[in-house]
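FAQ

Q: What does a record look like?
A: Structure on top, sequence underneath. For example:
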């Protein structure tokens, strides 16, 4: 009963912190850490210790999988080299340099244990991403921080295992490199296979609830086999999540994706909140262990402060030249773009002029590759980073869950183990409290507010892409009613463009008029024909009014409207679903070519999903 009551109170604490945090301007994880610290000081609360394997094997895989599913694959690909450097090179440098520092200032530990402690305090936590996302930071910075937090855990844990092994026996540097390469390579293969198979299997499951239950097993189906083979289960879970996130729009229905998003948000909230709450609750047990070991508490506090400053300085020393290198890369990209744009886009036409048989498929692939390369260069130029962004990247490198969990995996016979675990705990909590509480202020001071209208041109271009895809689908239909709908939609869009283009309400009015609708609140099935991309409830990038209207009964028409031919509501519904599929295919092609930002593509895809669900439900109600 006590355990059940503790679980209920923990859930209430997580919910309260999540609800109150935004009002106070403080991230919920920080409130949970403080709450845990305060509760742990109560005399009635016994010391709490959690087996770290429960966290490593049971909590981290689903958390990393969920984050990987929502990770923009396009941004991850573009900055993969940078993310890899932050996740591997920076972690290795931090571990070695901090290891030398710990070996020097902590008596009784050798270099291998010092490097182990350095590996423990090196990986950053994903909580920084949740803070910077709502502060107007560049999407590129957010993607880099998110990608770093996904991958650096595996690097740190592999280094930790190698350092512990080196403390017990001799381990060569090449042995560590080989172990790391094997761990990542095997985990990548397993994660890719699990992600690929899961998409195909889940595409055949019709029940959204069953589909979501299957998705809950994915991180463990990836991580457990990887761990059994001696690889990194965390990397396997991340790769499975990346594969799933990229292919979900193609293989899973909108209802399945919506169910996944809502349920995984709940799982992520509970697991992440529980871990941060435990971080605070374990303080009493850590202090007791430290006092029993005969080590001074304030001595450990001083070492932790030095370690936090040192790890921040190492990160700054790495990020500063990295930002400069990225700036030079953007400048080179602008010159490369001029050369790329001078290349002939139609290789099939060149083959004909050369007297060879044209390969149209190869020509299409070349054009797609060329557009993607140009889009990548535009991204690097438009989202170029300067010292302000670099400062945010440095200060957002907070330590958290992995640091505390990894510290508790140190062997029981490790010299000064209680002090080392306590130091790791203090580094994690101090970085969360100090950096986490000051990061919003730092961002507001350094980063100018982003112009809300900066993406207007992109949204117009994306809306035009969707309209073109919808019109192409209508034009390919041989049905006379489909051609009639196409003419009405074309006329409606022309009217909206002539009147000032692009505003959603104006487009709605024009489409309703073109579709032969009397009153906007009393739409007939013809409104489906008139509802193109850009209608009610879908925002500037939207895909149109839900468009099913009141199909159960026709609206009254007067004047010339009464002479317009009526259309079958079911036929219109099926046609609109085909148009949505065509628009979604166009979105996915644009995503693969990198032509729009991840935020704009995600918003447009969500609008399409909402409209498809609504149209499908209208069909069920009509049946």
């Amino acid at each position: 009963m006590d355990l059940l009551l503790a679980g209920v109170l923990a859930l209430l604490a997580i919910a309260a912190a999540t609800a109150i945090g935004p009002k106070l301007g403080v991230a919920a994880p920080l409130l949970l850490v403080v709450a845990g610290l305060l509760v742990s000081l109560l005399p009635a609360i016994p010391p709490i210790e959690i087996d770290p394997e429960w966290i490593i094997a049971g909590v981290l895989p689903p958390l990393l999988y969920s984050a990987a599913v929502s990770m923009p694959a396009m941004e991850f690909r573009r900055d993969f080299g940078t993310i890899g450097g932050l996740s591997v090179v920076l972690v290795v440098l931090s571990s070695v340099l901090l290891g030398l520092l710990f070996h020097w200032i902590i008596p009784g530990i050798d270099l291998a244990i010092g490097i182990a402690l350095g590996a423990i305090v090196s990986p950053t936590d994903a909580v920084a991403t949740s803070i910077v996302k709502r502060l107007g930071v560049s999407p590129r910075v957010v993607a880099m921080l998110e990608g770093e937090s996904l991958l650096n855990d595996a690097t740190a844990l592999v280094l930790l295992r190698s350092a512990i092994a080196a403390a017990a026996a001799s381990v060569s540097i090449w042995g560590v490199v080989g172990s790391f390469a094997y761990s990542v390579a095997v985990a990548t293969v397993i994660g890719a296979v699990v992600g690929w198979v899961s998409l195909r299997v889940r595409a055949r499951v019709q029940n959204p609830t069953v589909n979501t239950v299957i998705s809950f097993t994915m991180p463990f189906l990836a991580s457990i086999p990887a761990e059994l083979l001696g690889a990194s289960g965390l990397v396997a879970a991340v790769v499975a999540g990346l594969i799933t996130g990229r292919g979900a729009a193609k293989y899973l229905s909108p209802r399945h994706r919506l169910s996944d998003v809502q349920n995984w948000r709940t799982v992520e909230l509970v697991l992440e909140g529980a871990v941060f709450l435990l971080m605070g609750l374990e303080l009493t047990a850590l202090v007791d262990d430290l006092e029993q070991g005969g080590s001074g508490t304030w001595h450990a506090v001083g070492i932790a402060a030095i370690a936090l400053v040192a790890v921040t300085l190492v990160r700054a020393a790495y990020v500063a030249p990295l930002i400069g290198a990225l700036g030079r890369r953007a400048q080179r990209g602008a010159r490369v773009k001029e050369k790329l744009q001078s290349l002939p886009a139609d290789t099939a036409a060149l083959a004909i002029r050369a007297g060879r048989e044209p390969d149209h498929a190869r020509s299409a692939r070349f054009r797609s590759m060329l557009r993607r390369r140009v889009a990548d260069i535009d991204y690097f130029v438009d989202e170029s980073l300067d010292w302000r962004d670099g400062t945010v990247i440095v200060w957002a490198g907070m330590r958290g869950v992995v640091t505390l969990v990894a510290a508790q995996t140190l062997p029981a016979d490790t010299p000064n183990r209680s002090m080392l675990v306590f130091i790791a705990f203090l580094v994690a909590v101090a970085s969360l409290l100090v950096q986490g509480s000051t990061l919003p202020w730092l961002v507001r001071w350094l980063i100018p507010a982003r112009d809300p209208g900066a993406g207007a041109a992109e949204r117009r271009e994306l809306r035009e892409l969707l309209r073109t895809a919808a019109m192409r689908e209508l034009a390919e239909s041989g049905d006379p009613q489909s051609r009639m709908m196409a003419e009405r939609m074309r006329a409606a869009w022309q009217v909206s463009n002539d009147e000032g283009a692009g505003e959603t309400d104006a487009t709605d009015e024009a489409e309703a008029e073109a579709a032969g609708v009397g009153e906007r609140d009393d739409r007939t099935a013809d409104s489906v024909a008139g509802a193109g991309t850009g209608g009610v409830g879908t925002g500037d990038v939207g895909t149109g009014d839900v468009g099913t209207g009141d199909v159960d009964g026709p609206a009254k028409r007067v004047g010339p409207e009464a002479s317009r031919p009526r259309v079958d509501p079911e036929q219109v519904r099926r046609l609109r679903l085909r148009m949505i599929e065509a628009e979604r295919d166009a979105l996915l092609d644009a995503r693969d070519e990198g032509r729009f930002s991840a935020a704009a593509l995600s918003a447009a895809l969500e609008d399409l999903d909402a409209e498809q669900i609504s149209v499908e439900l209208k069909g069920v109600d009509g049946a």
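Q: Is there anything notable about this one?
A: The chain has a mean pLDDT of 78.
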